[in-house]
């Protein structure tokens, strides 16, 4: 094992020991941006090192790279005498090994893939001076960069070339930089404890994408269902087949109304799909004057693996729906091989059906988790009842019932279990949408009562039922009040390979507030710790292809075949609005070692044209102040916990004067709402005096829309009470960059009240008068 033997570089071991100690201390949050030369986060190597041992715990090299650097070291040192070896070996080792630093991209000025890579890492002036004085003869062997070789005999010129624009990252001072090294390799948090994650756009232009599933057949395709009744096939390279996998739009009952809960709601593949070609869907239908939910079985075409045989449909189960809301919609196969069906309570409000409601009535199929056996059903009954279903011997109870007392479970998932210990495997997690006060997350167990309508979250809803000693209900693992969100969207426990820090974290969201949230179980106490998830601030998401904003209405979550996590959201919650996007969740603080997560998809025979994926978001760009710029029409902004009126972004570490957002009903909306503008550190409203369609055009274009459909007046989208009125008498010609560039009465000067707050409606289709 090599040891440094040069003067001050001989103290390498002490410096690096301190570095490793800092590396794995869990201390207060910091702003840092570890990045490797391949423009990805660092990792913990699988195997020990022989050469760059200072980075054997965490960095940017695996053992193969360590061996390559060691070989290069020996080739360089062959050119020197014993004296030169004694003077310079430590320097050469340190300089070569900075390719393994967690901050290698900064040291070699490689944060931007378009810039040339340094051949020698950026050095702090005092270290560079010492290196030049002792070992400048070694420069030509370290670098073939002509300016460096020409400056070899001029210390000031040479060290000037090795300076970094950001002196915080120069070597070796970055090793002792507490700001950079604290909590390195762990998921970063902001001052409120909000986890800083990033996203990668995977698909777009979808109409309310509410399910993304895989067939577990080795092809690593994923299938995306739209509420209107279309299912699309995507290949591992994210190209989309032009011809849909399934099209039952003529049978599906839905509408273009925002918030319509009817439609194509669920899809799952049989565990043995690779052999039997079966899949199951859950959708709304109209039969005569009745609305029903239908669970059907289909088979894939024998001629095209990317097309369902539409004539193969067999209706497994139909359930009457007394109202058009609370339709449930989740289908999944448990690890036991049985099909689980999650129904809503029938709709309206408060489950008013019967004496105790549908959810508490085990003779009704609504408000339940059902479990049935659909194996070997080609002949005989379409499904059978598993022999261990909990209520098969209870008089009056439906034998399909597995659990009851649920209101409207929206999105459930099966935990794959820890990749190594299998801890948690087979658990079923669900988000259950609340009524007036609370949203909840449950773990589904056989025979359990989840409380509705007696309880909502942890609190009583129906006081009479709540005090009934026979209720014997199971409490949720987590519940949150409506100030955080009003419609939970259940997620997944992350068990993928690419982001080890996220293992065991249940990630879910809220449809109305746009919040992303997480729960992590303390396996000793059984308690679940909550952390909100925010988009990474500053440089956190400054990696190629990553973004830190998303459309606000979180519809669903998904896992791909390898266990990576995704979610689907939209800017307009209508079954006909093509503003749905799929995002992959990314931890920018640490990745898996190279090649650990590699897989070879089985070949897919394609008979349809392919539509190549084109992301809507441009890659992260930076100005000279390294502030993130965005091109998305819908940023998720979240009001902070600071002083009243001081709205704070959860997506940006620094906002620019003139940034706008649209707010409606206390939540941020993508295409319509009250206009709020950010000026000199605070959010405020705009008065509607002189408010015109030209003013609205400036706002809509700034948010990424093509057209302004309406200039709203008289606080149509609510009053911004608690905020100052920042602009009045605004007059634009429609071409300005933002409202501050228009004529106005001056920031903070106004002669109006909040009942005159201005708003807009934006869109990407021409107004009807222009069409």
User: What is the makeup of the main sheet?
Assistant: 9 strands, mixed
**What overall form do the CA principal axes indicate?**
globular
Oligomer: single chain
Strand coverage percent: 25-35%
Measured distance between first and last alpha carbons: 74 Å
Uncertain parts = 1-30, 618-654
Mean pLDDT: 88
How many helices? 12
Rg is 29 Å
**Helix-and-strand structural type:** alpha+beta
Number of strands: 36
Helix content: 10-25%
Main location: secreted
Family: Belongs to the HHIP family.
InterPro entries: 6-blade_b-propeller_TolB-like, Folate_rcpt-like, Glc/Sorbosone_DH, Quinoprot_gluc/sorb_DH_b-prop, SRCR, SRCR-like_dom_sf
Subcellular location: Secreted
In short:
The chain has 771 residues and is of the alpha+beta class. Strands 1, 21, 22, 23, 24, 25, 26, 27 and 28 form a nine-stranded mixed beta sheet that branches. Strands 30, 31, 32, 33, 34, 35 and 36 form a seven-stranded mixed beta sheet that branches.
């Amino acid at each position: 094992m090599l040891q440094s033997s040069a003067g001050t570089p001989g103290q390498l071991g002490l410096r690096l020991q301190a570095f490793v100690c800092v590396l794995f201390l869990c201390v207060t949050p910091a702003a840092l941006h570890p990045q490797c030369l391949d423009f990805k986060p660092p990792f913990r190597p699988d195997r020990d090192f022989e050469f760059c041992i200072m980075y054997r715990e965490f960095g940017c090299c695996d053992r193969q790279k360590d061996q390559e650097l060691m070989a290069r070291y020996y080739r360089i040192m062959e050119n020197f005498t014993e004296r030169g070896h004694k003077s310079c070996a430590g320097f050469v080792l340190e300089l070569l090994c900075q390719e393994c630093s967690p901050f290698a991209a900064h040291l070699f000025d490689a944060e931007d893939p378009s810039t040339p890579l340094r051949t020698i890492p950026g050095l702090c002036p005092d270290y560079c001076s010492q290196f030049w004085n002792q070992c400048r003869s070694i420069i030509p062997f370290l670098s073939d960069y002509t300016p460096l070789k020409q400056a070899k005999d001029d210390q000031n010129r040479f060290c000037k070339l090795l300076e970094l624009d950001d002196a915080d990252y120069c070597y070796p001072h970055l090793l002792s930089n507490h700001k950079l090294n604290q909590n390195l390799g762990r998921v970063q948090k902001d001052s409120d404890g909000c986890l800083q994650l990033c996203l990668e756009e995977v698909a777009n232009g979808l109409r309310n994408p509410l399910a993304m599933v895989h067939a577990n057949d080795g092809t690593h395709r994923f299938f995306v269902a739209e509420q209107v009744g279309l299912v699309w096939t995507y290949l591992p390279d994210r190209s989309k087949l032009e011809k849909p996998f399934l099209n039952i739009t003529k049978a599906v009952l839905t509408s273009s109304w925002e918030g319509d809960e009817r439609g194509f709601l669920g899809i799952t593949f049989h565990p043995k799909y690779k052999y039997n070609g079966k899949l199951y869907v859950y959708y709304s239908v109209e039969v005569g004057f009745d609305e029903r939910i239908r669970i059907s079985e289909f088979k894939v075409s024998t001629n095209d693996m990317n097309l369902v045989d539409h004539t193969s449909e067999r209706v497994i189960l139909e359930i009457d729906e007394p109202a058009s809301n609370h339709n449930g919609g989740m289908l999944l196969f448990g690890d036991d091989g049985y099909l689980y069906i999650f129904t809503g309570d029938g709709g309206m409000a408060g489950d008013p059906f019967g004496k105790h409601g549908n959810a508490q009535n085990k003779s009704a199929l609504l408000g339940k988790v059902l479990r049935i056996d659909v194996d070997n059903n080609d002949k005989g009954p379409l499904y059978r009842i598993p022999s261990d279903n909990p209520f098969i011997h209870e008089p009056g109870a439906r034998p399909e019932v597995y659990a009851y007392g649920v209101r409207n479970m929206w999105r459930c998932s099966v935990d794959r279990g820890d990749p190594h210990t299998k801890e948690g495997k087979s658990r079923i997690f669900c988000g259950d949408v609340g009524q007036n006060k609370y949203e909840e997350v449950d773990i589904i167990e056989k025979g359990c009562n989840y409380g509705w309508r007696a309880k909502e979250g942890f609190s009583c809803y129906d006081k009479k039922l709540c005090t009934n000693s026979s209720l014997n209900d199971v409490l949720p693992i987590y519940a949150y009040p409506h100030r955080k969100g009003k419609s939970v969207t259940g997620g997944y426990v992350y068990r993928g390979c690419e982001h080890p820090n996220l293992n065991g974290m249940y990630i879910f969201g809220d449809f109305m507030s746009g919040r992303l949230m997480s729960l992590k179980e303390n396996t000793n106490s059984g308690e679940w710790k909550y952390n909100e998830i925010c988009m990474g601030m500053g440089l956190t998401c400054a990696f190629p292809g990553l973004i830190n904003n998303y459309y606000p209405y979180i519809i669903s979550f998904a896992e791909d075949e390898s266990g990576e996590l995704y979610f689907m959201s939209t800017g307009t919650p209508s079954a006909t609005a093509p503003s749905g996007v799929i995002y992959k969740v990314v931890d920018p603080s640490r990745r898996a070692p190279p090649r650990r997560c590699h897989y070879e998809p089985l070949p897919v025979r394609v008979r349809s044209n392919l539509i190549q994926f084109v992301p809507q978001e441009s890659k992260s760009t930076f100005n000279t102040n390294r502030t993130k710029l965005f091109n998305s029409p819908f940023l998720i902004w979240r009001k902070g916990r600071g002083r009243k009126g001081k709205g704070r972004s959860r997506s940006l570490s620094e906002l620019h004067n003139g940034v706008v957002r649209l707010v409606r009903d206390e939540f941020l909306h993508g295409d319509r709402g009250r206009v709020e503008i950010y000026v000199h550190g605070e959010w405020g409203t705009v008065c509607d005096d002189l408010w015109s369609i030209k003013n609205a055009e400036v706002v809509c274009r700034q948010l990424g829309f093509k057209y302004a459909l309406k200039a709203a007046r008289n606080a149509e989208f609510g009053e911004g009470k608690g905020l100052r009125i920042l602009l009045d008498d605004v007059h634009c010609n429609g071409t300005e960059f933002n409202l501050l560039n228009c004529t106005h009465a001056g920031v903070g000067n106004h002669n109006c009240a909040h009942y005159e707050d201005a708003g807009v409606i934006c869109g990407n289709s021409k107004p009807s008068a222009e069409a």
